[in-house]
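User: Fold this; C-alpha cells only.

Assistant: Input:
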Amino acid sequence: MSALPVLQNYLSTSSVQPIQFSRRVVTENRRLASNVLWVRFSPDQESGLQNFTPALVDEFQGVLDSIRRPVGDMAALPTRYTVIQSTHPDYFSVGGDLRFFRSCIAARDDKRLRQYSMACLDLMHGWSTRLKGESTSISLVQGRALGGGFEMVLSTDYVIAEERSSFGFPEIMFGLFPCTGAMGLLASKVGARQAEKMMTNKRIYSAAELYEMGIVDELCGDGKGERAVERYVAEHSRRQKALLKVQASRYRTAPFNYDEGVRVVEDWVETAMSLSAEEIRTMEMLILMQSRDAVAGG
C-alpha cells in the first residue's frame, strides 16, 4: 500500500520537523504562502481500517486543543490554515468503529457508547466553531468519506475533493444514523429536508455531485489535491483578514447547535441499544466486509 505523494516545489520550502502526535496522527508545519498545519492520519494498526476509533477521536481532539493553546514550534508559527488528509490510498475514512459499537451493544454498555458519541460531538463542534475568526480548516479528500468521516469533512471550512472521491452515510443500512452533527452541518449547506434524504437514502454521492450541491467547495483531478491546497492557500492568504471575518460571520449566521447535537447523541445511543437481531447481523456483515477490504488492501 503506497503512501501519498510528497508535495514538492512549495511556494516556500521551509517546514518544521513532522510531529508524531500519537499512534495514528502526524502533524507538520508547512510554509506555503502562509503557515499551514498539515494533519495526516493513518489506519488503525490493529484492524487496518481507516476508521474513527475512540483513540483516534481523542487524538484529533488533542490536535484541536494544541492549535488553540500552541507551545513550542506551533507557538512560533501560528496556524493560519489546517489541512486534514488521510494517508489511506482509497479512503478518507470508513466512519465510526463498528466493532466498538457491536461490543458495547453486546455488553449492554450504553455508557461507553454515549462517551464515544459525545467525544465525537465535541470534536465536530470544536472544528466547526472554535477557530473561525483566526484560522481556516481544509479537508483534502482523496477517496471515500463515509459516515463519521463525512461528518468530519463537513465540520471543516473548505472541502477540496479529487474527482474519484465519494461520500455517504451508510448507517441506515443497519438501523442507525450519524451520531453527532450531520444534520446540522448538512442543513446549513443544503437545507434540512435534503440533509434528511442524504442521511437516509443509502446513496453514495460522487464528488462531482456534491460540488454541484455546494457541499464540496473545489473539485480537482486525481492526484492533484495537494496542489489544489497550495493554490487555495496562496489565493486566500492575500485577503485573509477580510475572508476570516466573513467566515466567522457565516458561522454566527448558521451556528452549530450543540444542544441539538446532545439530543442526537441521546437518540443515537437509545436506538443503538435497541437494534434488532437482523440489524446486528447487517452490522456484522459490514464489519466482515471492511475487514476483508483491509486485508486485501494491506
